[in-house]
Amino acid sequence: MRFVRTSLLPLTALVLLSGCSGAADPAPATGPAARAHAADDTPTPDGPSPKPTPVDIRALTSAELQHQWWNWAGSTPTERNPVVDPDGRDCAEGQPEGIWMLAGTFGGTVTRTCAVPAGIPILFPLVNTYGESSDCLAFMNDARGSAVLDGTALRVEELGATQIRAEGVPNSPVRGHRDFNDSWACGLWVRLDGLTPGRHEIVLRGGSGTFSTGVDYRLTATEDPAAVSKSQADRTGPPSV
User: Fold this and answer.
1) Average confidence (pLDDT) over 133-155
2) Is residue 199 part of a domain?
């Protein structure tokens, strides 16, 4: 990920509504049978949360795609930001429902081990930036990158200068020195359909000019949402810097 003049590389909500109805017993009852019946009628705790509906990432426009990713990347502070993440401990930070984002680095190559939800589409840049439209033109003229999933090359999209109005927390490392709320974004991107349960590896590399970045992602795709959250909680160590 690359900032213009401050370099950098390497969201959707669902509302679920439910209702219930019931009828009272025609007459009260007493005795052991009645107590057993009453126990059966006691509401049970809700089951596991329903799996989020996957976002149709193929239908996202350039503006929608880049807006969502930059909002995600800018939503967490430096000490737990996925772009600064040294080993995968912060992969789950700020992830929206129905889509999963991956990040590159501010330069250099790292290895990250993460748990991700199976069947949820994944979106990530190989190299990207934001700034003025003219900055994007120069950046994209020399942009290069590749992504490989389990030994198979993935399709790379070139998204040129697109105006975005993103938001971010004040101490996010992604905001840089420019106006993050009114910029032009561009980069090389990959839209990936959801992974099947099991272990996978994504190798991404990108660069523009003298800037280069890369991540070797070792992913475990799981259908258990709790496992995704737990994988993050189990990873300990000093804050990312």
Assistant:
1) 97
2) yes
